[in-house]
Design a protein that fits this description.
The protein has about 300 residues and is of the alpha+beta class. It folds into 4 domains: about 5-75, Arc Repressor Mutant, subunit A (Orthogonal Bundle); about 85-125, no CATH class; about 140-220, Roll (SH3 type barrels), CATH 2.30.30; about 225-305, Alpha-Beta Plaits. About 40% of the residues lie in helices and about 30% in strands. It has helices at about 5-20, 25-35, 40-50, 85-105, 110-125, 140-150, 215-220, 235-240, 265-275, 285-305; strands spanning about 25, 65, 70-75, 155-160, 165-180, 185-190, 195-200, 205-210, 225-230, 245-250, 255-260, 280-285. The longest helix has 23 residues, at about 285-305. The protein is elongated and about 100 Å long. Pfam families: HTH_PafC, WCX, WYL.
Length: about 300
């Protein structure tokens, strides 16, 4: 595969310190080390030979020789050390490792590898340079869910629905676990509702693994529909919980315009009603009509109860 300019630039910056540490190294060995052809290494060396510091006189250029396939650096200029991660990159790496450690609490082998990497990172940075603003959520069922995903098994969960304020039993086929703002979310196909759902792992109070399945989720689900909503900027929890089906979100003067891909208007209509009046439907019209009819039915039922 051909390199792009960025890949080649990074490799050439790595070549100089490596050659300094291995004087007399062959172009053949360099090709193996950097996973490119020997011809590409020779082109990179020719490029390096024309590089240097501003001024670009013979005194500022990198000086090297690579006769008979043997390479030596005479004047490296400023490229004497391997590239290091920036402080921002180190913070991101460390934060990622901390998250991995939290969600792999039941897998000792992975924890050992993660701890080893964290020790290496800590040697190069201030150990207190990464402070988590909040504790990363964990779940005692993460290992069970992960097993179900890898073995294509169904699971039965007991779930506390926030929008409906009730505990429900769900039979689902999990296919992905993601983390957002320190919270773990499970994306799964809900068998009874015949559509995709997102569950917050913190709200699962029971989880049992079931039998393997050959269910083709792409055929079992309904046709996806595009829904556009205007969401109040305060409702970040709605966006977090539905991140797996959100295809676009833009901040506007009226709020956050969110575009979702759903396969069940029934579910999204209940979600919009539970957050009213902080979520408004932009499209489709069928969703607005469904919500309007639901509200009328609820008001009629309420009026009937008061009159009886």
């Amino acid at each position: 595969m051909a390199d792009n300019a960025a890949q080649r630039a990074l490799r050439t910056m790595d070549l100089v310190p490596y050659i300094l540490e291995h004087p007399g190294v062959s172009t053949e060995d360099l090709a193996v080390k950097f996973s490119v052809t020997q011809k590409q290494i020779e082109k990179d060396l020719q490029l390096i030979f024309l590089c240097g510091l501003p001024g670009y006189t013979p005194y500022e250029l990198i000086d090297l020789t690579f006769e008979d396939g043997v390479v030596s650096i005479i004047e490296p200029q400023v490229l004497t050390k391997p590239r290091n991660f920036s402080s921002n990159e180190m913070v991101v790496i460390k934060l990622g490792l901390e998250m991995l450690r939290e969600i792999n609490v039941n897998e000792p082998d992975k924890l050992d590898k993660i701890s080893t990497l964290l020790q290496k990172i800590n040697k190069q940075t201030d150990q207190d340079s990464v402070l988590l603003a909040k504790e990363i959520s964990t779940s005692p069922y993460y290992s069970v869910i992960n097993t179900a995903i890898s073995q294509r098994r169904q699971i039965s969960i007991e779930y506390q629905s926030v929008s409906r304020d009730q505990l429900t039993i769900r039979l689902i086929f999990p296919y992905n676990v993601s983390m957002l703002n320190g919270n773990l979310y499970l994306s799964a196909y809900d068998v009874d509702r015949r559509s995709d759902r997102v569950f917050k792992l913190d709200l699962i109070s029971r989880c049992e693994i079931g039998e393997p399945t050959e269910l083709d989720l792409t055929k079992s689900a309904s046709i996806d529909q595009i829904v556009e909503l205007m969401v109040d900027v305060k409702l970040t929890n709605f966006i977090e919980r539905n991140t797996s089906i959100i295809v676009d979100q833009r901040l506007t003067s009226d709020g956050i315009k969110v575009t979702l891909k759903v396969n069940n208007l029934e579910w999204i209509s209940r979600a919009v009603m539970s957050y009213a009046p902080n979520i408004k439907v932009i499209s489709p019209a069928a969703l607005s009509e469904m919500i309007e009819q639901r509200v009328k039915n609820l008001l009629n039922a309420y009026s009937s109860q008061r009159g009886s």
